[in-house]
């Protein structure tokens, strides 16, 4: 486990490696050099059906050295941090540059664009836990899932995991930054079986510090309840219905929105939301914020892969799209300012002015009244056209109450129509990756089921 004293030593080593790379690069004829270094220590402890699984520990090192030679950018990677290996990687990058084409958009950040304030965002909280205690937590999650209902008699496993690392970025133009970080998690995947039907569901919690994690008992219980609720799914008649998508599932839609307004698709003209800046893409009651600097945030960072800081902002303000997610290259291509989103999406949260604290999932079901609750979606959308078609499972709801599980159906629409037709956002918020949201109540969607 990397502790703070080791992080200090590691940062000193990384600074020395960067200085060596800059010296080697200057001698070899590179105009500019940028180096990204990361060391990560990971461990996992698991259990399955009351028995311990093999525990895993690993240490990973990665270095990416990029050079600019006469307007040509090239990179080479290595997992060896010795001076000879760094020199070989830099020489390899310079050799690659000899055969490349000049692309001025690919230059590193200007010195004035680099992050000037590398903030401490309280992201480093190592987890000192003995193996027997970690195993006991995994077993507790399993036991909690099995206690939900007799039809859950086994699991695909429960696990604890932890990652501790230092991410480092430096440029010969004068920037140098280091981010110590941790990420810990617990998960459980129970199996529900009834009348020959079998359904696996799961639940997980991941945070920067152990204190933020959901308890092992809660993770197991929620996973068990989700498996129980999915067993014995039936089809429903093909038709047009109101739809409620639960919070964990709807984070995927936030991800598709983010990708549709991100640099790579926008500069290629391959997004259904291209050229919509300043237009209403959600209803007026909806706003979407991004905060790179949230303390202990799962997706917080003082700067991105280009060394540029993000900003606290409303990407969507009262329904209107106010900003894109732009890395440096895409911003230059679009003749816009970078937003500090190079390889990084920060803590995004969707909020509705109509949401009340009492808007739990049960209240959202009441608002749905009669329609389809979706708890799982498979597939992806066509972000060029916005076409949305997914295989889903969930539950049929009548008069605000769940009647029976649903499986073997598809839903179809267009993402632009879904976003603009967002009726309500629940207060039943969850966070998955960089996205935080409650459940979404949507206007009518086409559902393909039984004839």
Task: State the main characteristics.
451 residues; 9 helices; globular; TldD/PmbA_N; Peptidase C69; metallopeptidase activity; TldD/PmbA_sf; Metalloprtase-TldD/E_cen_dom
Short description:
The protein is an alpha+beta fold and 451 residues long. The chain has helices at residues 4-28, 83-97, 131-146, 216-230, 247-260, 263-268, 328-334, 361-368, 415-420, and strands at 32-48, 51-52, 56-69, 72-78, 152-171, 176-194, 197-200, 203-207, 239-245, 286-291, 313-317, 320-321, 347-352, 371-378, 387-398, 401-414, 422-425, 430-432, 435-437, 440-448. The protein folds into 2 domains: 4-230, PmbA/TldD superfamily (PmbA/TldD fold, 2-Layer Sandwich), CATH 3.30.2290; 239-448, no CATH class.
Topology:
Layout: H1 4-28, E1 32-48, E2 51-52, E3 56-69, E4 72-78, H2 83-97, H3 131-146, E5 152-171, E6 176-194, E7 197-200, E8 203-207, H4 216-230, E9 239-245, H5 247-260, H6 263-268, E10 286-291, E11 313-317, E12 320-321, H7 328-334, E13 347-352, H8 361-368, E14 371-378, E15 387-398, E16 401-414, H9 415-420, E17 422-425, E18 430-432, E19 435-437, E20 440-448
Parallel strand pairs: 9-14, 13-19
Antiparallel strand pairs: 1-2, 1-3, 1-5, 3-4, 5-6, 6-7, 6-8, 9-20, 10-11, 10-13, 11-12, 14-15, 15-16, 16-20, 17-20, 18-19
Helix pairs in contact: 1-2, 3-4
GO molecular function, one term: metallopeptidase activity
Organism: Gluconobacter cerinus
Protein name: Peptidase C69
């Amino acid at each position: 486990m990397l502790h703070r004293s080791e992080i200090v030593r590691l940062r000193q080593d990384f600074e020395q490696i960067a200085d060596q790379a800059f010296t080697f690069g200057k001698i070899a004829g590179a105009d500019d050099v940028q180096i990204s270094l990361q060391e990560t220590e990971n461990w996992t402890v698991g259990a399955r059906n009351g028995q311990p699984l093999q525990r895993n520990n690993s240490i990973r090192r990665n270095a990416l050295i990029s050079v600019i030679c006469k307007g040509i950018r090239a990179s080479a990677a290595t997992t060896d941090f010795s001076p000879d290996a760094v020199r070989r990687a830099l020489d390899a990058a310079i050799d690659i540059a000899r055969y490349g084409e000049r692309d001025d958009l690919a230059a590193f950040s200007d010195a004035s664009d680099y992050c000037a304030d590398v903030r401490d965002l309280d992201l480093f909280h190592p987890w000192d836990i003995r193996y027997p205690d970690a195993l006991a937590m995994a077993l507790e999650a399993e036991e909690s899932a099995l206690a939900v209902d007799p039809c859950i008699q086994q699991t695909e496993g429960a696990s604890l995991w932890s990652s501790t690392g230092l991410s480092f970025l430096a440029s010969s133009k004068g920037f140098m930054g280091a981010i110590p970080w941790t990420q810990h998690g617990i998960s459980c995947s129970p199996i529900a079986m009834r009348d020959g039907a079998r359904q696996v569901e799961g639940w997980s919690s991941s945070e920067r510090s152990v204190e933020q994690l959901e308890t092992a008992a809660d993770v197991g219980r929620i996973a068990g309840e989700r498996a129980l609720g999915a067993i014995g799914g039936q089809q429903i008649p093909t038709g047009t219905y109101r739809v409620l998508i639960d919070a964990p599932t709807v984070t995927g839609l936030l991800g598709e929105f983010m990708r549709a307004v991100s640099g790579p698709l926008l500069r290629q003209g391959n997004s259904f939301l291209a050229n919509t800046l300043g237009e209403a893409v959600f209803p007026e009651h909806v706003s979407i914020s991004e905060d790179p600097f949230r303390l202990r945030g799962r997706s917080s960072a003082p700067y991105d892969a280009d060394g540029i800081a993000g900003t606290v902002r409303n990407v969507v303000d009262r329904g209107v799209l106010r900003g894109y997610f732009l890395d440096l290259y895409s911003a230059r291509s679009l003749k816009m300012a970078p937003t500090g989103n190079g390889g990084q999406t920060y803590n995004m949260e969707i909020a509705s002015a109509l949401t009340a604290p009492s808007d739990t999932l049960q209240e959202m079901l009441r608002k749905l009244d009669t329609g389809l609750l979706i708890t799982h979606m498979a597939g992806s959308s066509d972000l060029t056209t916005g076409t949305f078609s997914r295989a889903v499972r969930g539950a049929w709801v009548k008069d605000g109450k769940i009647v029976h599980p649903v499986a073997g159906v598809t839903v179809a629409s267009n993402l632009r129509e879904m976003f603009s037709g967002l009726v309500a956002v629940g207060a039943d918020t969850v966070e998955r990756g960089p996205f935080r949201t409650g459940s979404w109540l949507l206007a009518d969607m086409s559902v393909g089921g039984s004839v």
